[in-house]
Structures
1.
Amino acid sequence: MLSEFELIKHYFSNFPENKSVLRGIGDDAAVIQIPDGKNLVQSCDTLVSGIHFPKATSPFDIGYKALAVNLSDMAAMGAEPHSFLLALTIPEVDEGWLRQFRDGLLELAEQYHIPLVGGDTSRGVLTISITINGTVAAGKSICRNTAMVGDDIFVTGDIGDAALGLKSILEEMQDDDYAACVEKLNRPIPRISTGIRLHDVAASMIDVSDGLGSDLQHILESSGVAAKVWLDKLPVSATMQRWLTRGNDYSLCLAGGDDYELVFTAASKHRAAIDKVARATECKISRIGEVIAASASQPSLILIDMNNKETAMSAKGYQHFRASR
Ligand code: ADP
Ligand code: MG
């Protein structure tokens, strides 16, 4: 059986390199030179088998998604990914599994030129925890607490497909072709180039991991504002449109999670600049609402339906450790 050292050498030593990594895998800790004038941006995301992905997910997709969700956090700050660390917990050493897992990870690492600079390996329930490092021009990170009353609200891509893909797997749904939705669930596209180009344009930003409604509410709460969102402006795929036309409500779009699209707010004077970002990065960006003043008598997120009727967001996004009743 491979020792931890051999395992790392065999499977995790062929990742991209970067001169600013002064010490990478093989020492007690990685040493990284942060360029002058940049802030270091760090984030950590864990995927646990059976909770964050169905147990039957392919090892390639697990590796891919583990890095994609971390890259998405960099995108949401407007940061450029730099390098990452991998804490891998595996029930057993299965070399075929490791190879495919590594290939999924490597595909995105190569696409974004990010070295694997360290990690940890242990035995237990399959759990992948990645810490990602990024950089952003000093003071330019795009945070959650800076939305302004009067801002437009935008979202990238289509929303709800990942949740529909997951539902189609769990409920073995066969009434439509859900392959593209399952693809979005397993291989989310981190919106790195779009996030970076939103510097000087977006006032606040977050990525959609728990559902558009609950993630937008994080912006509203930390900025002390409220929002109106027009349901008929929510960008949906043809498959999601058919799902809605069959009488289903918007809960998969608002509370489904796993989209890894960006939600951001921006002053209305930036609309033309945002169209330019969308074209330059080949990423659809839709205007879905507006930031309004918070008021004690109203919910913070007001949804406006096709008949111009206001409703509050009732379905909450997926929440870990929600108090049990
Ligand atoms: P330590 O005993 O200091 O924790 P380890 O024996 O766990 O060191 O790890 C040895 C080296 O291998 C370290 O540089 C560590 O960052 C790296 N490493 C361990 N596991 C992984 C992994 N899964 N992926 C990448 N690097 C790893
Ligand atoms: Mg260790």
Note: The radius of gyration is 20 Å.
2.
Amino acid sequence: MELILLGAPGSGKGTQGEKLAAHFSIPKLSTGDALRAAKKAGTPLGLKAGPLMDAGDLVPDELVYGIVEERLSLPDAHTGFILDGFPRNTAQAAELDRMLVRLGERAIDYAVHLHVPDEDIVKRLLARAHKEGRADDTETVIRHRIDVYNAETSPLLKFYGAQGKLLTVPGVGGLEEIFQRVLAALK
Ligand code: AMP
């Protein structure tokens, strides 16, 4: 099972991705988590990515390709994987397709889109920033992240829709309720 999770920041990709990974016993890769770890560790990658992440912008595509290909090459990803936060634009989606061919003639099965209205997203992200003490996560940065999603990432809905791979699931309600919707869509 090769899955991509699509949805605005705060739409629940991380949480639902964890549940899916446990359910199907396959790994989940979050490029955002990997970049945050690199930033925290102060690696060259983290130093380059940090300011862009803080501003709510995407980092250059080339910075994430290595992270993804390396992780998907590991043996535990051979039976499947869940991608959270990658691809983020159509160039990354095309590169992912090429990567999967290099990794053994594989392809994405489905792109699961967790759909949450913009205003709910702002509320969720503000609550999260407050809870995690992310004072730099201001409403301006949050709104910018949503704009970046709408401009750069949402075209992927068409990209996967045209391939018959898009499954759109309402991402509002209880975590378990949403998870059951995702499982039902995948059946
Ligand atoms: P996320 O946790 O997925 O929202 O990612 C946090 C931040 O990491 C994003 O706002 C981007 O700056 C960066 N990032 C994560 N994944 C990607 C990606 N696939 N392409 C470019 N930037 C990314």
Note: Residues 110 and 165 are 5 Å apart (CA to CA).
